[in-house]
Amino acid sequence: MLNTLQNNFLKITKTIFPDHPQLFDEWTDDIGHLMANQVDYQPCQSLKAFFVIIDRLAKDHQLKFESMENWVQDYKDEIRNFVLPYIRIVEEDSAPYSLKSSNRQVINSLLNQNFAESGSALLFHKLRETISKNEFDIATEIPTAKIAEKALEATAQVRSENAYLKMKSNAAIEQWKNLTSQAITSMDDLTADIFDIVSILWMQQATHKDQMIHFHTDDALNLRRLQGRSEESDGYQTSYRKKERDDIMKRLAALTTIWIRIERENLRFINEDQGNFDEIGQVQFNPLFLIDSVTVAYRGENPIGIYECSIRPGEILANFLYGSQKSSGFLALKTLEYHPTKQKYHKRLSRYLSWQWRIRQKSADYLRAYHIGGDKGLLKVMDLDVNPRYGSRIKEQFEEILDTLQQDGIIKEWSYKEKDLEHQIEQERNWFANTWLKARVQIIPPTEITGIGDDRDLLLIEDYDYETVNFSTMLKGLTKLEVAASIATVEEKLVTPENISRERNDRGLSILVAANQIGISHSTLSRYERNLIKRPYTENLEKMKEWLNAK
């Protein structure tokens, strides 16, 4: 059965998509997973699109999916035009990079971008999360954090000594120990920002794994878009206030005290881009970052932090930021601007989404919903309180965070997956634990992440219940019920202010007449069309949906 399917898809890709030979390998891999009945497996977006158009043609022309090899060539242009927008372009990944000549040039370039290439390996993300939430156990002699996730087991420690840093005297060694002895108290979201900033700057400039880059406190302050008291001709800010500099210097010093070790022997790390794996044997503790040429700032006789230095990732981290092991995604630079205490939840959610989008890139299943509660939910990601006594306040705070991320362009749009969630909440006494914590949200990434400019191109084959469709069943012949449901969903018009206004004008109706037909007040309809109602009542949405899609 599988060989027959493979032969069919080989013929299809060669004749319909001769300019995209990678499709056959991608689709063959996906078909293998689907035929193995891996229900939760998400195939690539192009294969989903192919399923939809083939099924639509079969329905429209009374054809059989099972015999598609007999008729698919007759509809070659229609199939190609439908699937093309969903084909992942792989050439961009290997595009040559134009190296910047200095930190200043790199930073000025980044300040004109919304997103920057950043680490996205599991180890990178979990370390950053450990730092931001300060998950180091201080009950041990050396503050230690255990990282255990899927195939990864690692240990991170905060150490005051640094055998890699060359000290010229015992006095210098003592000064360094004094500087780093309180590092554990500086593990927070601002330190996680410095982790990101150093990694981003190094990835922009490194030409080999052992390359050091110069790092200055002002570099971090500029990328956080804090205003200095002086400005250079190129816009670079200088002469920052004492507290702003102190905060950065202290965190940079804290970052250099972190050491990591991979626990499992012969771990196999999958190289997502190349489809193979490398084995990394068990290693001793390695510094997270290596530094040299350090300038320590003092106030009186007390060391404050690192003013500037040469820096690079340690051996383990460098494996994930450079070369064949490299795993990178795109971090919204607005994340660095958020206040490290007042907006720490914004930072954490933005970082998590950056990591998730890199994982979802292959199959382009960006619209798969996120759980709100539970061990893997977004509240846990942000470390947000889940005390039922403050349910309304937590829900409001959660929605405000997502609204802010949307306003700042970190996400394009968000909505609850459950259509009648607000109505359920209104009807239940214990709604927080019984309903809201179990709900899900759908978060649409910005165009810079998906490469798709029109939301309809995402929603077309990934509508509300489409992720639950069993694609292996479709490959074995499809069921009429699943096909009818998926195609009906595809063809439904979405309820948006623009669609409602366009439909009303196409029908030649006034606000008053249309509102009467829908069953809502004319003032509500008028305000909705003008985008003044951000979250309409579920009941009104259902009425507008029924009116919009009425034949």
TrEMBL record:
CDD domains: HTH_XRE
Record Pfam families: HTH_3
InterPro entries: Cro/C1-type_HTH, Lambda_DNA-bd_dom_sf
Organism domain of life: Bacteria
HTH cro/C1-type domain location: 500-544
Protein's name in the database: Helix-turn-helix domain-containing protein
Native organism: Neobacillus pocheonensis
